[in-house]
Every structure is written in C-alpha cells, then in structure tokens.
Amino acid sequence: MKRKLKVGVLGGTGMVGQRFVALLENHPWYEVTLVAASAGSAGKRYADAVQGRWAMKTPVPAAVAGLTVQNASSVPQIAEQVDFVFCAVDMPKDDTRKLEDDYARRETPVVSNNSAHRGTPDVPMMMPEVNPEHAAAIDAQKRRLGTKRGFIAVKPNCSIQSYVPAIHPLLDFGPERISVCTYQAISGAGKTFETWPEMVDNLIPFIKGEEEKSEQEPLKIWGKVEDGRIVPATSPVISAQCLRVPVSDGHMAALSVSFARKPSKDEILARWRAYEGRPQQLKLPSAPTPFLTYFEDDARPQTRIDRDAGNGMGVTIGRLRPDSLFDWRFVCLSHNTVRGAAGGAVLTAELLTADGHIQAK
C-alpha cells in the first residue's frame, strides 16, 4: 500500500467509536484523520469531547486527541476528506440508514457497526472468517445506489460473534436446532460500572431486540448470494435467550446443538483446531491466529482471563459434552467491543481493502 488510507470515525465519542480510535492507533493500513459525532460534540477537540468518559484502558491516541470533532451529518464536507468511514453513531435506525446511504452515495464506503442495514438484501453483513463471499453483493448494491466506489458493509450483532464461528466449521454435519443463552457484558450497552452502578451484583434477563437478532442474523450470514441479493438460509432453527450480566467486557454463550448427522467429539475438536478463514490465509493485520481456541479445562473459557485472546479478536470454546435433549453442548466466548464491534468492523475493512473494494480516492 503506497500510503495509509484516510479514515473517518462517525460516532467517535461513544463507546464503540472510542474503541475504533484506540484500535486504529498505529494501524499499518489506516490513519484516523477525522472524527465526527453529534452536533453537541462538534467543534470540540476530541480529547475534550471524551474527557471524563474515555472508557478505554489506553490513553487517547495523541494523533487523534487534537482533532476537531466534526458534525457527522455534514456528509459532503466529510466525504471530501476521507477514503472511507467507520460508522458507530447512536441515532434512530431510520436516521442511521439514511446517513449511511448518504455517505455511500458520496462515493465514500461505509463499514458500519450499526444494525440499520443488516436486513438490507444487497448489504453484506460480514464475519470475515465465515462469509467473505458475501462481498459479491457489493456490485449490485452499487448499481442500486448509482455509485462507482461507494457502498455499505455491516458487521453482525455482538451476541452472535462467539457461537456462529464455532458452528460454522460444522455446517456439513447439518446443524438443525440450536438453543443458545448469551451472557452479555455491560459494555454492550455502552456502559461501565461507574456509569451503571445498578448492574453491580445484578443480572437483567432482557435486552431489547437482542434475541430476535440472535435468532435471525446467523441465517443471513449462512445465506447465499443470488442475483446480487443475499438470501438467508432456512436452517438451523435457533432459539435464543439473552441476559445482561455484571461483567465489564466479553459475551459468553452456552448452547446445545442437534445435527442431521451427529459428529463425534473428536471430529468436532478436529474441525475447531484446524479451522482458519480467509483473514488468516491473507495474514490481515487484525486477524487472530488461531481464530478458534478450545480449552480442555472445564473451567475455561472465563470472561476475565480469556476475552482478550488474539488481542480480543479470537473466539474461545470449552466444555464440549453430550446433551440429553440435543446432540452436543458447549460454551463460547468473544470480546464484545473488539471482535463483536469495532475490531470486527476493522477486520472487515481489511478484507474489503485486500480484495480491492476499498481504495484511496
């Protein structure tokens, strides 16, 4: 790459936006040259805009601290200054969808953390190790938008990032039914224990919209591109329950799975240990190696000690054992604001860059 691509972060003052800024510090391909947020933060130095609410463990990157926050709705001005944008705005879904469309139509690719376009048939919802072929829908999307280089790609919901990668290497065994319960960290709600003290010593058995996403989004990920549209798979049937738990970062999933052709334990473990996706084959900067890690210790994975596997981009698995109602059950863990949010979007952008979909203007 002749020069680093100029990147804008929309919604850069929020929890996920901060994670984008932190992850992109010293990135070999990308440079954050612009940060945008709501009108309330526009005009401030970035360091001042996040003062008192910077939630990352590392300091605000010096190269970004002095940038003047721009108004994310100033699409023409921002589009002229960057090669592409990451989107993590906190807006109503319809407003987010329009904003992302506006950037794409201004010939500025959008890699989004938001859910607004996850159901749009020609917008790839990408988990790079699982469905890189869905980028084939981008050409049809460009025709719909009337663009040459502008498009939108999104990452899936954070709650599915742990268990979909574990099921994917087993698809040829025909998973038919999945029952999953996710135990989700408070950072998934953009909170810390300081800002949400009610979560200390507490558990909330409801996260609005999360169960529907957990049951539906994997089917799009496992769908096929037909005539420029992603047609969701019709199986497996997924039943999900999603709970908010008193954990800072890291989403755990406990699931039971029935297969059309039941694999042996050795077959499952062999698939997990051998699996690698296109990001690993291309050695993309953010790709974890290994992607999947299985623990023989029944007490692993644990959120606090395993969520940072692969710099927060790896998926850890444990407790594979027979199930009395299904065939097999096991637990999975992923870091929800790294793999499940900003990091997953960065890896998606890296794959799209490697394949020529994102280029310098």
Give a short overview.
This protein is α/β, with parallel strands linked by helices. The chain has helices at 15-23, 46-49, 62-65, 75-79, 93-105, 138-145, 163-167, 210-221, 265-274, 278-282, 303-306, 338-354, and strands at residues 5-10, 30-37, 70-71, 84-87, 110-112, 152-154, 175-184, 224-226, 229-231, 237-244, 251-259, 292-295, 315-322, 328-334.
* Architecture (CATH level 2) name of the largest domain: 2-Layer Sandwich
Number of helices: 12
CATH class of the largest domain: Alpha Beta
Q: Distance N terminus to C terminus?
A: 13 Å
Mean pLDDT: 97
CATH homologous superfamily placement of the largest domain: Dihydrodipicolinate Reductase, domain 2
Shape: globular
Whole-number tally of structural domains: 2
Can you give the helix content as a percent range? 25-40%
Structural class computed from helices and strand pairing? alpha/beta
Low-confidence stretches: none
Biggest sheet strand line-up: 3-2-1-4-5-6
Rounded Rg: 20 Å
InterPro entries: ASADH-related, Asp_semi-ald_DH_pep-lack, NAD(P)-bd_dom_sf, Semialdehyde_DH_NAD-bd, Semialdhyde_DH_dimer_dom
Family: Belongs to the aspartate-semialdehyde dehydrogenase family.
Organism: Anaeromyxobacter paludicola
Keywords: NADP, Oxidoreductase
